[in-house]
Amino acid sequence: xxxxxxxxxxxxxxxxxxxxxxxxxxxxxxxxxxxxxxxxxxxxxxxxxxxxxxxxxxxxxxxxxxxxxxxxxxxxxxxxxxxx
Length: 84
Known about the structure:
The chain is mostly helical. The protein has helices at 2-24, 28-83.
């Protein structure tokens, strides 16, 4: 998890650096287009990250339910064995 956060941070930093470089090197008309493109791409990235986080949380909830069910079944089995 720590490594993925690092790589996400590096990727975002790289994109920001490239965007700033392009912005500084362009004329006014290109700057306006570039800003619109950056805004669109940032909105898309935000949506993608949001969906990935949501999916990850759903998978985590499923895993928690599986572990919880397994623990409950194991406890019930051990209690049944102890009662015999």
